[in-house]
Amino acid sequence: MTLQLDDDGTALSITKGDLEILRYVYRPDNDQFESPGPTSSPCATSPGTR
Predict the structure, then answer these.
(1) Helices (H) then strands (E): counts for the chain
(2) Which pairing describes strands 11-16 and 3-7: parallel, antiparallel, or unpaired?
(3) pTM of the complete model beyond 0.85
(4) Of 26, 18, 25, nearest to 48 (Cα)?
(5) Are the CB atoms for 27 and 10 separated by under 8 Å?
(6) Nearest Cα to 21, choosing from 37, 34, 3, 1?
(7) What pLDDT does residue 7 have?
């Protein structure tokens, strides 16, 4: 199975099948009081371990 990259306009997500390996938020939709930089989560291995 291959990795898939999706962009929804606020975040990039990398998936392998049904498993989201990484989500990188570059335009957060919540109020930013501290550290307004982009964030990434979750980080998962291909077997699904976080």
Answers:
(1) 0, 4
(2) antiparallel
(3) no
(4) 18
(5) yes
(6) 3
(7) 97
Residues comprising the chain, all counted = 50
Q: Which amino acid is at 25?
A: V
Which residues in 5-29 are b (16+ Cβ under 10 Å) and which e?
A: eeeeeebebbbeeeeebbbebeeee
Tokens 């990398």: give the residue: 14
Tens place of pLDDT for every residue, the chain, 50 residues? 699 999 999 999 999 898 888 888 888 777 777 665 655 666 666 665 65
What is the C-alpha to C-alpha distance for residues 36 and 15, in angstroms, rounded to an integer?
25
